[in-house]
Amino acid sequence: MKKNALKPYAGFIALTLISGSAAGLLVRNSFETYTQLQKPPASPPGIVFPIVWTLLYLLMGIGAAMVWRSSPGTPQRSGAILVFALQLAVNLLWPFLFFGLQAYFFSFLWLLLLLALAITMTVFFAQLSPTAAWLQVPYLLWLAFAAYLNAGVWLLNR
Q1: Of 1, 23, 29, 140, which has the fewest beta carbons less than 10 angstroms from its beta carbon?
Q2: What would the 3-class secondary structure string for 68-98 be?
Q3: Within 10 A of 81 (CB to CB), how many other CB atoms are there?
Q4: In this structure, are residues 153 and 99 in contact, taking their beta carbons and an 8 Å threshold?
């Protein structure tokens, strides 16, 4: 792969990792409250979250770069990248709602919106790069699991 071909990968991976890290850093002081909450069965230990999210952001960035390289200048590529950016923005607001504001019900609804956008993104990715779409499957599964955890926290801590 040529040096210029790697630039989109570096850019999209950096975008996702920096965005996710920034959101995590801004709400890091709220994690103590989370440890005090009742959680639903199958809630993983806290150390699992940054590891999983790092991997998911990597896969998301790789998928976006694959789409970016697949069809330069086409409306399909523009649409796929727009949905990618929109779902990333919605993703990055969720920690503020859940940890920062402790708005557990609203953050659950927000997570359902995020899941719908991530599914839409995956469908758009599939039209341009089936591999990029398959890379999003772990993200979709994690979002579904996160919705279960979020709903559980809301129901158990009302």
Answers
A1: 1
A2: HHHCCCCHHHHHHHHHHHHHHHHHHHHHHHH
A3: 18
A4: no
Query: How many residues in total does the chain contain?
Result: 158
The domains found in the chain, sorted by start residue, are: 3-156 (1.20.1260.100)
Q: Count CA atoms within 13 Å of residue 94 on its CB side.
A: 22
For the segment 124-144, what is each residue's pLDDT rounded down to a tens digit?
999 999 999 999 999 999 999
Q: What is the mean pLDDT of the chain?
A: 94
Angstrom distance (rounded) from CA 92 to CA 116:
15
H-type alpha helices, the chain: 3-26, 31-36, 48-70, 75-95, 104-128, 130-134, 137-156
Cβ contacts of 14-21, under 8 Å, gap ≥ 24: 14/61, 15/61, 15/88, 16/57, 16/58, 16/60, 16/61, 16/64, 16/88, 17/54, 17/57, 17/58, 17/61, 19/57, 19/88, 19/92, 20/53, 20/54, 20/57, 20/91, 20/92
Rounded CA separation 24/152 (Å): 21
pLDDT above 70 for 1: no
